Structure formats: structure tokens, C-alpha cells
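Let's practice the habit of predicting before peeking. Look at the sequence and jot down your guess about where helices and strands might fall. Then scroll down.
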Amino acid sequence: MKINTAPKLLLALLIGLIISVLLGRHIYSNETRFISTEFEQDVRTESLALEREIALNFYALQSLKNFFDNSQHVDSEEFKHYASSLLETHPDISALSWVPKINESERSRYETEQVYFGKKLQIIERNESQKLIPALKRHLYFPVTYIEPLVDNEDALGMISILIQTV
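Done guessing? Here is the structure:
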């Protein structure tokens, strides 16, 4: 009797092992598919949220552009007031600045007349050792003329755009 039960026991063990492996693979496959679907949904949701936030920030920039386009002259107080309200409603934007296009022939007048909250602006840039110096002669300058918040951004005033320096 012991001789007959061993093959039956071995067969039952083998069938149980095969069923366990197949069931484990099936569960693993379903779980992997579920995790993948969840991940894709999370990525879709986050990318839509990011896309929406970028669109809102571009709206704020367009609003600032329209403010300048529809004004005869914007002074530092008007800029501060308008930019502050935009920053309050768009907390992901850390600062806003206005960077006009200045020709070489306009540079002297710009540096003579442009004052921002009592500070006379000079068109500046950083040299190789990262020290602030008067900007080298160019055909065009794009200096930071207004910036909000001014706190922690004072050094940016008059700084020419890094992207424009290579033009």
C-alpha cells in the first residue's frame, strides 16, 4: 500500500505545484497590468495639471504684455502694483520683470533717465569672474528694467538678458 500511495502523492504534489505556478503568474500579470494602468493614469493626470499651470502662467505673462501694450507709459509704481497682483494670483511664478529692447544709440538716454525706486539703472552684465560690470558695447540691449518682487532681485536690475548676450 505504501508503494501505491507514493506515486499518487507525487502526482497530487506536482499538479498542486503546477496550479500554484500558473495561478501565481496569472496574479502577477494582472497586478503588473493594474500597476501600469494606474501609473499611466497618474502620469496623464499630472501632465494635464502641469499643462494647465503652464497655460495659466503664460496667461499672466500675456496679461503683463497687454498692460504695457495698452499704456502710454508704465512707471515703476504701476509695474509694482500690477505685477504684485499677478504674483498673488499665480503663486508658482517667483518674479516678473520687464525687459525692453534698447538700441546702442538709446543706451545713454536710458541710463540717464531710467530710475527704479530711486535707483538709477545702468546696463550691466557679468564678466568671466562673475563680477557685475557695465555691459560691453552691442547693437541691442535687453536690460531688466522693472522687477517684482524687488527684494532679493535688486542685482538683476539693469542686467542684460543672458540669452541675448550670445546674439
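How did you do? The longest strand covers residues 96-98.
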